[in-house]
Specification:
Blueprint: H1 3-37, E1 40-46, E2 61-67, E3 85-87, E4 102-104, E5 113-120, E6 134-141, E7 151-164, E8 168-173, E9 186-198, H2 200-212, E10 215-220, E11 235-237
Antiparallel strand pairs: 1-2, 3-4, 5-9, 6-7, 6-10, 7-9, 7-11, 8-9
C-alpha cells in the first residue's frame, strides 16, 4: 500500500469516526430533550370565547398535544369531563381548559320541578343573576276594588335559579292597565327567561303571579343569606308607611 492509499484509508477512518461522533451527539441531544420534555399528552384549547354560566359543548374546543410535564394537574384531558357543565367565568379564546374553570349545571332535587317565566329586564335583576343563584320572588297586585289596596307580596323565597336565557323583545301591557278591563295599551319591552327549581306549590304561586300580577320582580339573595323572611315582611301596602 503506497502513501496515497494510506492517506485515503486514514481520511476514511477519520470521516467514519466523525460521523459516529456526530450521531452520538445527536442521540445525546435527543435524550436530553426527552429528559426535559417527556411524553406528550392530549389537552384542549378554546376555539372561541365562552360567556360565564353557559353550557359547554365539544365544538368549542380543539384537541392539541402537549408535553405531559407542562400540563397542570387540573388540565382537562378528556372532554367527557365537561358534559352537563357550565363555565364559571369568562373563558378566553386560546386558553387551555382547566377543570376549575367549569362546574356542574344546577339540577332538580327530588320533589322539585322546573318552571320558566319571563322577567322584565328593567324590573328584574338583569345581568346579576346566574345559574345557581338564590332569589326571592316578589309580585305586585292591583286592588280589585276601592276598599282594597295595591299590594306587594313575597310569593317564593330562596328560589334556586337553574338557567338564565337571552334578552328577548316582548310586547307588554302598559302601566296602569288591567287584563280584566277590556283593551289595554301595549308597549315594547325586553325580558329574560329565567328557569327555577321549585316545589309544586311554589311553581303554582309563580305561575299565578305571572298571569295576574302587575309585575314580578326578583331580589338576589346574598350567599349564605338564605334565611326565612319574617311573616310580617312577606306583604306590603302603602298604608303601612302612613
Amino acid at each position: 500500500m503506497n502513501s496515497r492509499q494510506r492517506r485515503g484509508v486514514i481520511l476514511l477512518v477519520v470521516s467514519i469516526l466523525c460521523a459516529l461522533g456526530a450521531f452520538a451527539g445527536v442521540l445525546a441531544v435527543i435524550r436530553d430533550v426527552n429528559s426535559k420534555v417527556g411524553p406528550e399528552k392530549t389537552a384542549y384549547r378554546l376555539r372561541q370565547d365562552v360567556a360565564p354560566y353557559k353550557e359547554l359543548t365539544e365544538s368549542q374546543f380543539e384537541k392539541i398535544e402537549m408535553p405531559e410535564r407542562w400540563l397542570s394537574g387540573t388540565a382537562v384531558t378528556d372532554l367527557r369531563q365537561i358534559r352537563g357543565k357550565i363555565a364559571v367565568t369568562q373563558l378566553e379564546k386560546g386558553s387551555l381548559l382547566q377543570s376549575d374553570m367549569v362546574v356542574a349545571r344546577p339540577e332538580l332535587k327530588p320533589g322539585q320541578q322546573e318552571i320558566a317565566i319571563m322577567i322584565d329586564a328593567e324590573t328584574g335583576v338583569a345581568g346579576k343573576i346566574d345559574p345557581g343563584s338564590k332569589v326571592n320572588i316578589y309580585a305586585t297586585f292591583k286592588a280589585e276594588n276601592d276598599k282594597q289596596r295595591d299590594q306587594s307580596k313575597v310569593i317564593v323565597e330562596n328560589a334556586q335559579v337553574l338557567d338564565v336565557g337571552k334578552l328577548t323583545p316582548i310586547e307588554e301591557q302598559g302601566a296602569g292597565s288591567s287584563d280584566r278591563g277590556g283593551s289595554a295599551a301595549r308597549r315594547q319591552g325586553e325580558a329574560v327567561p329565567i328557569t327555577f327549581a321549585l316545589s309544586a306549590a311554589d311553581a303554582q304561586r309563580v305561575a299565578y303571579a305571572e298571569s295576574f300580577a302587575t309585575h314580578v320582580r326578583l331580589a338576589l339573595v346574598a350567599p349564605g343569606g338564605d334565611t326565612a323572611i319574617a311573616p310580617g315582611d312577606r306583604s306590603y301596602t302603602l298604608d303601612e308607611d302612613k
